[in-house]
Amino acid sequence: MSKAQQQLDEEDAEEAERAMKEALRDLEEAQDELDQEQQDAEERLAMEQLVKTTDTLRQLAERQGKIVEGTTDFEKLRAAKADGQLTPAERDDVKNLGRTEDRLRDETNDLIERLDNAPVFALTLKQAGEQMETAAKRLQRSITDDETQRAVDGAAKRFKQLLDALQQDQGDGDGGGGGGGG
């Protein structure tokens, strides 16, 4: 009887060991699935952030383009006048353009703070912001000369560089995050 009990215990131990190994395999598979789901979720989040950043950059670039146009138009207007001077109302419009540029620079700086994982993009935006600051100060003094034109154009070119880099990253199909290139 004792021998039969021992065999039964040994069979139970072997079965328990098999069940334990199977449970461990199931746990490992579940952990692998969970890890894959987490990686997929992180990739989806990164893509959503990339799309949002691209949209924000596109909006900033469009608005900067309008400032470029406005600055160019006012400089042409000024140059066409015999005395080379804008009217008081036109100077006020140029000052308003400068205030708009200043707000746009603030929005650009806000975007820089969100790009801590994309230092090259942040640096390019910082350079755009510096040019925008120069332009804003000059426009607020009703100055639309070549130096002001270079500043607004330079900021617009920085936005275009970033959008081109993001488009290239998305075109590669890897969703790359756009963090390093620009």
Give the structure's gist in a few sentences.
This protein is mainly alpha-helical and 182 residues long.
Folded structure, characterized:
The chain has 182 residues and is mainly alpha-helical. The protein has four helices and no strands. The chain has helices at 2-80, 88-114, 119-140, 146-171. α2 (88-114) runs antiparallel to α3 (119-140). The longest helix has 79 residues, at 2-80. The radius of gyration is 31 Å and the shape is rod-shaped.
Question: What is the count of β-strands?
Answer: 0
Mean pLDDT: 86
The span between the termini is: 81 Å
Based on CA atoms alone, the radius of gyration comes out at 31 Å
Strand content: under 5%
Shape from CA axes?
rod-shaped
What does the largest sheet look like? none
Portion of residues in helices?
over 70%
Order of helices and strands: HHHH
Unreliable sequence segments: 173-182
Helix and strand composition category: mainly alpha
**Number of H- or I-type helical stretches:** 4
